[in-house]
């Protein structure tokens, strides 16, 4: 059994060695994965949103990296009809358009989420659009993360 005073000295020595070992190293938040690159939070939506650039993804190395996008649609004020969230990007197979949040009926408090992992070509715009066929008001949330 190690005496309590000796444990403290060992812990202090371990911390000192850690500080010496990491001296001169620079830590950057951009090197921590996953990292959030862009968010959109909008409320009071009462019409469709046309194709809009969310972010231009410019992977450095490797030239194609994995990304994750999450979306949220919520009906704040009840109405009739529904709402949907679509995203578009380009990978090695071509232009890809998909529905991130499927059709949500607009009843007060109704919501739907969606998540997708994907790769993109260098300098590719990630775009979003919504299809609105309702009389209620909506909230929209989108988050884009780089996974590595």
Task: Characterize the main sheet.
Answer: 4 strands, antiparallel
Mean pLDDT: 81
What is the CATH H-level superfamily? Viral head domain of polysaccharide receptor-binding protein-like
CATH fold assignment: Jelly Rolls
Helix content: 10-25%
Number of helices: 1
H-E order:
HEEEEEEEE
Total beta strand runs: 8
Inertia-based shape: flat
CATH class: Mainly Beta
Structural class: mainly beta
Radius of gyration: 23 Å
Low-confidence stretches: 15-29
> Which strand order does the major sheet show?
1-8-3-6
Task: Provide an overview of this structure.
This protein has one domain (29-146): Jelly Rolls (Sandwich), CATH 2.60.120.1400. Strand 4 and strand 5 (94-105) form a beta hairpin. By secondary structure, it is mainly beta. It is flat. The strands form 2 sheets. Strands 1-8-3-6 form a 4-stranded antiparallel β-sheet, with no helix packed on it. Strands 2-7-4-5 form a 4-stranded antiparallel β-sheet, with no helix packed on it. 13% of the residues lie in helices and 57% in strands.
Keywords, separated by commas or semicolons:
single chain, 148 residues, Jelly Rolls, four-stranded antiparallel beta sheet, 8 strands
